[in-house]
Amino acid sequence: MTDRESIENIIVNIRKGNKWFASKLMSMVEDGAYESEECLRILRSTPGQAHIIGVTGWPGVGKSTLISRIARFFLDKDKQVGIIAVDPTSPISGGSLLGDRERMREIDGDERLFIRSMATRGHAGGIAANANAFVRIMEAMGKDVIIIETVGVGQDQVSVCYVADTVVMTVIPGMGDYLQALKAGIMEVGDVFAVNKADKKGVDEVVMDLRMIIGMSIRQNDWNPPIVKTVAVKGIGIDELMARIERHREHIAQCGKLFSKRITAVKLEIMEALEARFFRLLNEKIDFEEKLEGYAQQVLEGKTDRHTLLESIFRETGIVQQERSDR
Amino acid sequence: MKAAKKKRVILAKVGLDGHDNGIRIVSKWLMDGGYEVIYAGLYNTPERIIQMTIEENADAIGVSFLSGEHLFYAGKFKSLLGQKDMGHVKLIMGGVITPEDVEALKGLGVDAVFTPGTRRDVLLSKIDSIM
């Protein structure tokens, strides 16, 4: 089979909803296979209509369980659902333990559902670099709803807000006072707030703190993020949460924010591709990774500074031709 | 960018066998060995694991047993993999298995079998070699 035929075969089968072809293309994207880019281009040329929901929050707030409930809600309406569950890659070994799926056993196995676990592979924003590509592949399969579970995020891992149409920020009672929440960038990206484990002590305090933070935040497009109390394991509060999530999607579609979000997501993808390509170029031209240890020693010992070092690297690679005159 | 291909392994328990200490340790070992481990936990059916293998595009399935049902499930997994044209997916088994049954499993086409006491480096180098 020629490349052309094999690409067309992949596209046709993905558009029929074939899980095997979709899954293989996802791996090709992750492994940086050349043909995957052309497949993605073709898939993107037919824009999809899926609602992309991001679920984020600190580790242990119940993201996977909440996602199971959200997915169940849509499956009950006979919708096609995709889930992308992201877990971290170990910076030491490069391996990862992808365990989100294990908490979704209640829904796992449904024919209308496609769950894909994804390792961050060194990407720092709380979701993996290729999450947007995975979203587009699932959309092409005919998924009506695509849910992204981020890694348990800290304070500034907000890239999910670019990929998802609606970001559900999940918090639980007893995780510190409102100042903690106030300084965290992730609090600013929530479109809908789920206060999960709402049967625990301190839930009203959390809701009060959130109201205050949301009230103080600068918001765009007249959207006032609602706060919903949920107990995901018992299914409590899910209907209200879903009503808010669906309302948000209608809102951003009306005000034009949906399109600008999608542009931002692709900007991010381009930046990531550039970064990766640039890094590869440095390795090809000057064995950058080999030399990094030596560079680090020079900076540590005060023999050079970072700016001077970069200038010399750029000259060596030919990226910068001459001495910069503005220094 | 041409990134390094990462190998993906699904680790699971099947049936009602609830003893997951061993497979949890193997999960950690494989993760430390650079694998992407999809941990499926307890009480799975072979059909569900096969579906998962498709969705995750996994290179191998690892299942562990304390209950003595390894021969039955080995046959089941091999036949499902065959039916779905997934012969490239490696099948790894572990647990309390007698030496005769280790041979029997290999006869059924299981790619590697590990019994209690297997050292980390032995397990990893065997799995590296079959992947």
Could you tell me the number of beta strands of chain A? 8
Strand order of the largest sheet of chain B: 2-1-3-4-5
Biggest sheet, spatial arrangement of strands of chain A: 4-2-5-1-6-7-8
Strand residues, percent of chain B: 15-25%
Strand content of chain A: 5-15%
The residue ranges of chain A in which pLDDT falls below 50 over 5 or more consecutive positions are: none
What does this structure look like?
The complex is a heterodimer of chains A (327) and B (131). Chain A has 327 residues and is α/β, with parallel strands linked by helices. Chain A has 13 helices and eight strands. The termini of chain A are far apart. With 131 residues, chain B is an alpha/beta fold. Chain B has one domain: Rossmann fold (3-Layer(aba) Sandwich). Chain B has five helices and five strands. A five-stranded parallel beta sheet of chain B has the order 2-1-3-4-5, sandwiched between helices. Chain B is globular. Chains A and B meet through helix 2, strand 3, strand 4 and helix 11 of A and helix 1, strand 2 and helix 2 of B. Strand 3 of chain A pairs parallel with strand 2 of chain B.
Detail the topology: elements first, then pairings:
The complex is a heterodimer of chains A (about 325) and B (about 130).
Chain A: H1 3-15, H2 19-30, H3 34-44, E1 51-57, H4 63-76, E2 81-87, E3 96-98, E4 113-119, H5 131-140, E5 145-149, H6 160-163, E6 166-171, H7 178-183, H8 185-189, E7 192-195, H9 203-216, E8 227-229, H10 238-255, H11 257-286, H12 288-300, H13 306-317
Parallel strand pairs in A: 1-5, 1-6, 2-4, 2-5, 6-7, 7-8
Chain B: E1 8-14, H1 21-32, E2 36-44, H2 46-56, E3 60-65, H3 70-83, E4 90-95, H4 99-107, E5 112-114, H5 120-130
Parallel strand pairs in B: 1-2, 1-3, 3-4, 4-5
